[in-house]
Amino acid sequence: MPRPSLRSTRRTPGRPVRFALLALLLAAVGPATVLGPVAPLVVQAPPAAPGTGSDPGTATGTVGTTPASPTPTGRTTVPTTASLRLAGRRIVYSYPGDTPPPELLDTIRAGRAAGVILFKENAPSPEQLQLAVDLLKAAAQQSPSGAPLLLMTDQEGGKVRRLPGAPVHSARQTGAAADPAGDAARSGAGAAGTLADAGLNVNLAPVLDVFDAPDNFIDHFGRSYSGKPEVVAELGAAFLTAQQQLGVAATAKHFPGLGAAAREENTDERPVVLPVPLAELRARGEEPYRAAIAGGVRLVMTSWAVYPALDADRPAGLSSAVVQGELRGRLRFRGVTVTDALEAGALAAFGDTGERAVAAARAGMDLLLCSARDIQQGDAAAEALAVALDDGRLDAGEFSGAVGRVDTLRTSLGRP
Fold it and tell me: First CA to last CA across the chain, in angstroms?
């Protein structure tokens, strides 16, 4: 609501009284600046805490110490402690070097992190990785809920392995094996063994992209099982089933498929548009996901490419038409959705970390992958989500549903 003009307010008799009131007002707001009057601080109560049952100690209505964030109206809002904790339960953090920094451990102890993604630089040796995982798990145990973290990495096989060990074969090698389904199952079991031995519980694999041209982007690195959707469906399902039977959650990626991307079309580096006709997209790109969902895959990662047949303006992970319409609606996926890297070059036109995080959450993404090896990236995403929850830009019911799905996944993977 616009603030009333001074001319519309009622006069108060007596100049001394007016000057006294003016002096009190100036003392309260501080000196005037050339930029105009100081905007009031807006502190709003959070919505009712979602009933996920995993954070009984959340205090409602208290103001956190996080720096204020600007809202789209230009006002400044301080996110509440309750909303910050809820938002953090949707963030996957990353960190530089071989040891989790104290600020990340503090965030985990406060219950404001869903998980951590690990890279080769975080695991220079098995001993150092074990130390890091022990620190992360101990911090999670000290959080209000004590729920285990989602500790994840990319262990696809072939060239894409963050940890030494199985699976040795790439998806391409598996597809060309004498017994492809058996090889895929052995690769899935091998990935589970490698991750479980290291204390990790989520693998960002298998890749279900169906390449449409040899040596294109996804085939060049051996990350696709085949150019035939039925083959990718069978082998991807075999991999994820074997892996999940050993207690490590699988992630099918990159929905609705990067198989049409040309050699240089890398969403990590720049925007990519894949003008695949809708019928072909559903028949080829989405077919392996039907099998994965039927097989009980726990997570699905969306692509950052734009698919004009579904949404001409937004990448898949920022599009409710893709996430809610195709994945949730048509394919009936009920598990956890996770973004690809939030710092990807494909999102250059979609604002800073906070704006991307809010857009992804609004589209229906449950987990936000902050993989820039920068703790502040995760903090910025969580703060933006909390502010958007407080001011109503993110629906409280949908937010509760996302947190609930993530919490269910975490608790199902065992105590740290």
Answer: 49
- In the chain, how many H helices and how many E strands? 14, 15
* Tally of CB atoms within 10 A around 19: 10
Instruction: Tokens 């030494």: give the residue.
Output: 164
State the Cα–Cα distance between residues 221 and 159, nearest whole angstrom: 7
Dig out the tokens for 397 from the structure. Answer: 């019911």
- Count the neighbouring beta carbons within 10 Å of the beta carbon of residue 407: 21
Query: What is the Cα–Cα distance from 362 to 394, expressed in whole angstroms?
Result: 6
Eight-state DSSP code of residue 121: G
Global pTM reads 0.82
Strands 115-117 and 91-93: parallel
In this structure, are residues 146 and 109 in contact, taking their beta carbons and an 8 Å threshold? no
Distance CA 188, CA 112 (A): 31
CA distance 244 to 412: 12
Residues 6+ apart with CB under 8 A from 54: 145, 147, 407, 410, 411
Closest CA to 202 of 254, 125, 148, 160: 148
Token pair for residue 392?
């109503």
> Mean pLDDT by 10-residue block, N- to C-terminus, for the chain (416 residues)?
32 36 34 30 32 30 37 61 96 98 98 98 96 98 96 96 96 98 98 98 98 96 98 98 98 98 97 98 97 98 98 98 98 98 98 98 98 98 98 97 98 76
**Token digits of residue 23:** 């002096």
Cα separation of 356 and 369, whole Å? 11
User: Please, where are the H alpha helices in 214-270?
Assistant: 217-220, 229-245
In angstroms, the Cα distances linking 272 to 7, 96, 108, 295, 344 are 55, 28, 35, 30, 11
The DSSP 8-state label assigned to residue 33 in this structure reads B
CA distances from 123 to 96, 130, 162, 413 (A): 11, 8, 8, 22
